[in-house]
tRNA(Ile)-lysidine synthase
Amino acid sequence: MGPHPAVAAIRLAVRRVLHDVLNENSAPHTAPHDAPRATTPLVLVACSGGADSMALASALAFEAPKLGVRAGGVTVDHGLQPGSDLRAADVVARLAALRLDPVESAAVRVGRDGGPEAAARDARYAALDAAADRHGAAAILLGHTRDDQAETVLLGLARGSGIRSLSGMAATSGVGGRYRRPFLQLDRQTARTACMAQSLPVWDDPHNADPAYTRSRLRHEGLPALEKALGKGVVEALARTAQLSRDDADALDTWAAQAEAAVRDPAGLLECAKLYALPPAVRRRVLRRAAIEAGAPAGSLFARHIEEVDRLITGWRGQGEINLPGRVVAQRQGGRLVIRQG
C-alpha cells in the first residue's frame, strides 16, 4: 500500500525540484574521466514549524537521500513573540529528528521599513541568504502554496501596481535561482493533511490569524467572502492568473530591455520623442529600469512614481523635476529625460 495521496503529492513536487537542482549542478559531460566529481549539492528547507513548511521538510528528508542530495534546514527566529527562541529550538529539534543535516536557527532583528510584514520578510530572506552562503547550499525550498499565491495576487491587485504584481511568486527566484517553491500548485489543505497522515506536529503562528496584518485579514475574511460571492475555484483561478501574468510580464520586460538601447542618444541619455513612440507598457518598463540603475530601490519604486515620470514624456508642460525613492530625481532637459542622483 502506497503513501497517503497528500503525502505522495508533496513528495512528487519536491522530487521534481530536486531533479532540477541536480541537473543544474551536474558536472559537464565533457569532463575528463579522472576529473573529480562535482560536490553533492546541499538543499536547505526554510521551516517555521507550520504545516506548509513541515510538510516540505518531511518530503525533502524522504526524497533527498534517494537522489543523492544532502538536505538541511533553517528556521528563522524573528523575535516578535515571547518565547520565540524556544519555538525556534523546537523546530530545529524537529528538523534534526527528520535526519536533516545541517540544521540551525537564525535569530534576526526586524526593522520598520515598509511596515511589519515587509520588514519581517526582508529580515527573513537576509538570514536565509546568509545561511545558504555559509553552507554553500545550491537551493532553499520555501513552503508557499497555491493559497499563498492567490493572496499575493490579490494584494498586488489592491496596490494597483501593475501586471508584475499580479504575477505573484515565481517558482524559482533569487540570485542564481536560489529559492524554489515546490508547492505553488498544491493547496494549503494538502500540506496540512500530509502532516496529519505522517503524525507530524505543527505550530500555527498566531500572527497568521491576527487581523492587524493585511495578509491575515485577506486570508480569513477577504478570500472566504470572494468564494461566497463567486463560488469555489477562486484560489485556483487567481493562481492561474499569476502564471499568465508572469508570462506576459516576462515578455514585456524582454521587449523593454531590447528597446532601451534604441531610445538612447550617443551620450546614453533617453530621448523623449523615441520614448513617446513606444507602447506605454514598454515605455514605463524602460523608465523603471533607468530609475533603478540611477539608484532608486526597486522595492520602494511604485507605479505612481513611474506614472509621474511618464508624464514628463506624455504630458510635458514644463513641469519640474520628479523626486523618486533613493534620492533619485527625473527631469526633462532639451528633449532628453535625465534620471540621476539628486
